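Ticket reopened. Same input as before:
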Amino acid sequence: MKRSLVLVVTAVAFTLTAAALHAGCPTKGVKELTGAGATFPYPLYSKMFAEYVKACNVKVNYQSIGSGGGIRQLQELTVDFGASDGIMDEKQKAEAKNGAVLHIPTVAGAEAIVYNLPGVQRGQLKLTPDVLADIYLKKIKTWSDGRIKAINPGVNLPSTDIAVVHRSDGSGTTFIFTNYLAKVSPEWKDKVGFATSVNWPGDVGGKGNEGVANSVQQIPGAIGYVELAYAKQNNMAWAQLKNKGGAFLEPSLESAALAADQPNLPDNMEVMVTDSANPKAYPLTGFTWLLVYENQKDPAKGEAVAQLAWWMIHEGQQYALPLEYAPLKGPALKKAEALVKKIKINGKPILN
Amino acid sequence: MQSEPQAIDRPFIQSGRSKASDVRVRNLGDRVFYVTARTLASCVIVLALLLVADLFRGAWESIRQFGLGFIVGTTWDPVARIFGTLPTIIGTLVKAAIGLLLAVPISIGAAVFITFYVPKWVRPIISYPIELLAGIPSIVFGLWGLFVMVPVIRTAQIWLKAHFGWFFLFDGPAVYGVGVLSGSVILAIMVIPIVTAISRDILLTVPRLQIEGMLALGATKWEAISKVALPYARVGLVGAVILGLGRAIGETMAITMVGGNAFTIIQSLFDPVHSMASQIASEFTEATYSLYVSSLIYVGLVLFGITICVSLLAQLLIWRLSKGKVAIFE
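Engineering reply: fixed in the latest deploy. New output:
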């Protein structure tokens, strides 16, 4: 009771500060901003930016050229902000020309493990992290394997070979998926590791969500991973995945949004929330970030970028759920706000 | 027979050359035109050289790291930062070769039929849809391939595996649908319109008199076509096939959709495998560190090299066919 009261009060406080900051959109004559990067949040960002130009009369040109491209353009100062599904590594940070880069989370996305097993409906198949990792390591080769049967009593599993399908294009989706496998399986971490594209032990690569989904739908016995929105729209059968707390969960935006609601979340939010410690969180979840220089060189542009980031993590959030993204909640939102407030001009924070 | 095309070509080219040198001094307008044309022509060459130089510059980090071992390397591991591209080279060449094997007989057959067997007024009715096919964007072929063709191929694969599984080409580890066979078939479909259209234009240049002469000597239509028309046109036909091969090797989007994109050295027609162009397109956007990007550009450089080799081989073939004529120097 007390806790919920505190929550309400903070929520109201946030809304008030948000409204105060937003009023009038003081943009000092900046009419245009450019950003580049991740493709995963592109549908949401284009909706957000279409609304932002109406609200604040600042046009945001966002090129969804991929996270790698977004990072490179930010390093070279050719854009006002970048966007990425992955965290910049130390070397990339060192190559950023304007110094420290803030990773501001905007939304989270979830991924579904989809399969093609005739007769096994959506949500009927259960998978544990170690079984999933061993399937992708090609150590478990058929659906009738004893370890799959043990966690799926009563499910009629065929003796079909498992056809493992992965993304062939470099993607944030793969980054989240492999990052999860590396967390739950030491062998995966040693042999394969995690990145936007890895050296897959098997079998078929599909281009984009559509490529993976299509291969899974056509090959009996196939398993793959796609963005939750894509699995929903195509009515694909997805598996329940066991999370860190031991609960079997179907992918959902609600459980994905809880992934960041865990203790020990770092202040800089440079964290992969896959395999979250929250007992109610779906484990295959990841943030997508805005990349912004902490020390802005151009006062007018710097202020406009800070305003935009603030708007995106507040007013912008209402567009997340309809487009199948999990909005920022609780501690994640609080830390994102603190990060936006760290954006400075000449050592002085822009928003206060 | 062989001397015929040369007899027609040569005087024209020679007179063209001497005229060019004449007009240069004759009047100002022609001189300006000559200089402009020459500048534009050298621009193309400079552009090609710049492209090579830039590829080298971009690939330099990877060249320094892996050297020529990159070409025979079989590991592509962005996590461990080890790159090699042999599987994709094999994948690209095998898919292009099988694609051409399927496409060339159909294309030349269609061209022969259009040129020699149908009445003149029917020609455009048959040619137009074929040329229309050439204008379809490759992503459309790719999506059609993925959603319509691949399931059909998969059914064929199951049948082939059941009946001819003893033959190594038809013995995949599993039947995925996407893979070498699907890739080759989609390439064949994409290459057919180009090769058909060019072959038809070339066959139309075969002098009617020669064929009629052959017929007058008592040859059958088949003999007239196979002994006169095709030999007369073969240099051009090889050229048409080479253009098709160029498209097959460089094809990116459609082959990405149906190729299966696994990084393995293929052992059968059913194996999924990456192509060089599709790998570059797929991974470039999310290549997050410089050696990764550089290695992808290196793949581009190797692809460029392969294209040049193939084109030179083709020139050699044409040269052998036409006994001493090298198209590149014409």
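The mean pLDDT of chain A is 87. Chain A has 13 helices and 14 strands. Please confirm and we'll close it.
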